[in-house]
Design a protein that fits this description.
It is built from 2 helices and 12 strands. The chain has helices at about 1-20, 95-100; strands at about 40-45, 55-65, 70, 80-85, 95, 115-120, 125, 150, 155, 160-175, 180-185, 190-194.
Amino acid sequence: MKYIFLALIGFICICSCNRDRKNISTNIETWGKSEGGLRSRIYMEKAYFSENENIRVYYQMQNVSMVKKIVWDTKFFGNNKIIVNYENGESAELTPLAVKLFSMFSPGGVVNDKMWLWLEPGQFLNIRCPPFSTGLHQHTRNPFDEDYFNLLDYFVLKENNKYTVQFIYEENRKALCLPQVKIKLESNVLRFSK
């Protein structure tokens, strides 16, 4: 009888643990709030990751207005942020690569005037992981072949923790004959476990 009781307790713990993992959002249908005619979303293939598994996040923007919109391409880190927090709101530790790359964040900073693109009404933009500059990181894959961001490149994520992740596109610039772009576009927030 004692062994049956212990087995039942173990079964309940396993089911409870799995239920918590399944309740974490990976929903591809969820978007962040629309801002300036654009909206963005991030999504994952799953919400629970094992110890050495890549934590892949996909990032998209869409023009939800009735007119063309400008998106500035500063090779991602000039006008985009990746925010990862523990479930208590504390920021996750950055990798040495992230410290260098994230310091490049400067909406409206110096950029080649040709580093922009027009999004037609309804058009989607899949944002790809940019190549890393030589000397910052020895990349084991070709980032141009990847449509995802591996959070392990940027954050020290410890086992047995729950996290949130959000991407933010922020820009404030005017160039040549182009209209002023002033925007802070926040994606949806995802929760995941490791």
